[in-house]
Structure formats: structure tokens, C-alpha cells
Model the fold of this input.
Amino acid sequence: MRRLALPALCFALLSLAGCATDKRNQALTTTLQNYAGSIRWGDFTGAQVYIDPTYAEEHPLSSIEQGRLAQLRVTGYDEGGGPRPDGEDEVVQVVQISVVNINTQAERSIVDRQRWHYDREKGKWRLMTGLPDFTVH
Done:
């Protein structure tokens, strides 16, 4: 009987670990889809929900920046190859975002390098790099 107990215990532990990974991966997929949807529809206020609270506190969005974002219409959001693991609880994703300025009708594209971190306590993915930077450099 003991011969069966050890393999059964190992299988049970591996199954639980797999469940946690599946939950984390599903949370990542859902988070990235919802965040992308917010950006695609120009809902930058809604997109701020996904930003890490510490980052958001250190980099508050000014009313001027909010006004600039309101002048943009997103015309494209390309995730390229999707997220790549970068450490145990982190992924990176490079996204190309195309926007049109509604005042000038000028279109341009930016590259947004996103870093996402998984908060194990809350079971949520948080964006560590803030909203995309649409300022002309």
C-alpha cells in the first residue's frame, strides 16, 4: 500500500501546482485582453486599473496628460508575438499602437514595452510600466 501512496501523493502535489499555473495563465490572458480592449477603445481611465498601485502613486496622470490622451483615437493595437516570460512572476510584451490625433488627423505609431508582474497574494497581474507614452520625441 505504501508503494502506491508516494506516487499518488506526488501526482496530487503536481496537479495542485498545475492548477495554480493554469489559474495564473488564465488571469494573464484575461488581463491582457481586457487591458488591450481598454486601450483599443481609448478608455485610458479604464486601463489605469491594471497599473501597479505603487507605480500609479509615483507617476500620477496629470490633467494635461489626460487631455492629451482624450485627443487620440487608437487605430491599431498589435501585440506581435504576445507575452514572453521574464522571471518567475513576470512577463514582457512589446506592443505597437497606432493613433490618430483628432485635431490634426495625423497618424503615428509607438512601441509600448510592457512589463507585467503577478501579485500572488491578490491573484492579479499588474502593469509595472504605466500607460503607453504617446508624446512625440
